[in-house]
Amino acid sequence: MGNNFRENLRSELNFQGITVKELSARTGIPIATLDCYLGTRATVPSVDAALKIAGVLQVSVEYLVIGEDSGMKNQHKTISREAREIINWVESCNSEQCRAIHNMISIFTRQKTQG
Questions:
Q1: Distance between CA 49 and CA 43 in Å, rounded?
Q2: Proportion of the chain above pLDDT 90, given as a percent
Q3: How far apart are CA 104 and CA 70, in angstroms?
Q4: Among 51, 52, 2, 62, which residue's Cα sits nearest to residue 24?
Q5: Whether 113 contacts 107, CB under 8 Å
Q6: Cα 92 to Cα 19, 28, 37, 59, distances in angstroms
């Protein structure tokens, strides 16, 4: 993760596959304003705008500002992007799918420790 809002926002948008246009529609923040946050001048958003952006991206404002979250809500700093993607997939599964995934992971970890 980067060390400023611009880099962290750009990285999170790329990771989640969200365009600036989509973020604008979901937050109500004009595209031109978002472009200012993401541009080379890296304008810092108001608290209200940062809260809207963080809410849509489901990350904390702290994460967007400094690239890490000291709370337990998000563990971006300690897990890989791939692991975050897996977590997002699992969170969208129903209980039967979660059980199947759990069983597959259990088999994989048993094989890994035995082999």
A1: 12
A2: 33
A3: 31
A4: 52
A5: no
A6: 21, 26, 30, 17
Domains and CATH numbers, the chain: 5-66 (1.10.260.40), 81-114 (no CATH)
Mean pLDDT estimate for the chain: 83
Q: What is the pLDDT of residue 75?
A: 46
pLDDT value, residue 41: 81
> Is 19 exposed, middle or buried (CB count within 10 Å of its CB: 0-12, 13-18, 19+)?
exposed
- The encoded tokens of residue 35 equal 């472009």
Confidence of residue 81 (pLDDT cuts 50, 70, 90): low
Tokens 């365009």, located at residue = 19
